[in-house]
Amino acid sequence: MKIVPSHLALSLIAALVAIPALAQTVVTVNGTAIPQARADVMISEQKAQGAPDSEQLRNAVKEELVRREVLAQEARKKGLEKAGNVQAQVELARQAVLIRAYLQDYVKAHPVTDAEVKAEYEKIKAQLGDKEYKARHILVEKEEEAKAIIAKLDKGEKFEELAKQSKDPGSKDKGGDLGWANPAGFVKPFADGLVKLEKGKYTSTPIKSDFGYHVIKLEDSRPVKAPSLEEAKGQLKQRLEQMRVERHIAELRTKATVK
Known about the structure:
- The chain is of the alpha+beta class.
- The chain folds into three domains: 7-82, no CATH class; 87-128 and 232-259, no CATH class; 131-223, Roll (Chitinase A, domain 3).
- It is built from nine helices and six strands, in the order H-E-E-H-H-H-H-E-H-H-E-H-E-E-H.
- Helix 2 crosses helix 3 (55-77) and helix 5 crosses helix 9 (229-255).
- The chain is elongated, with a radius of gyration of 32 Å.
C-alpha cells in the first residue's frame, strides 16, 4: 500500500529542510540575507593576520557585512552596477579571487618537501660564505680615471675625499662607504677583488665591472653566523613555493594561444 504524507508531515519536512538554510544566514539587511560563508571568509582572513577568534571579532565582521550590504543596495538603486567601468572592476575582482584559489590549490597539490628546503638552505649558505665585509669604493667611467685615483691614494690623499667624484650616487656622499655586506651581494669582479684585500688596503689596480671601474678599500671583515635551518625554514619554504608558482605560471603562459 502506498503511503501519502499528510499535509502536517509535509509541513514538518519543509521546516526541517529549511533549518540548514536559515542556519547559513548570518544577518538579513532590508530583506536581503547575508550568507554565513561570507562572514566565515572575513573571519578567516582576520585570523590569518593574527586576530584571535572571539565574539568581538564576529560581531565586528557582522557589522562590516551590514555596512557593506547597505552601501551595495544604495549603489544598485542608482544602477551603478550596470556601469561599464564598475562591471569591469567587479570582473577583475572575481578573477583575482579565482586566481588566488587556483594558486593556493596548486601549492597544496605540489608541496615543498623538507629535503628541498634543506637543499636550498645549503645552497644559499655556501653562496654567502662565512664572512662579511665593510668596504668603500669609488666608481668611475674610465680606467685612466681609476688609475689616477689610485695614484693619489698612494701619495696619501684620503679615500673619503676622493670618493666625492664617484659615479655611485648611493655612496659618493658617504665617502664611498658601502656598509657591512656579503660578497654575494656584489657583482662577481667586485666581490673577487674585495675578498683578496687585506684590512685597511685598497686595490692597486682598477676593478672592471659592467658599471665601470672601481677602486675598492677594505675597512674590515668579520665572521658571520648564518641562521639555523630551523630558523630559516619558514622563509625558505615560502621562497620555494613562490618560485614553483612562478615557473608554473610561465609554463601556462608559454602554452597559451595568444592572438
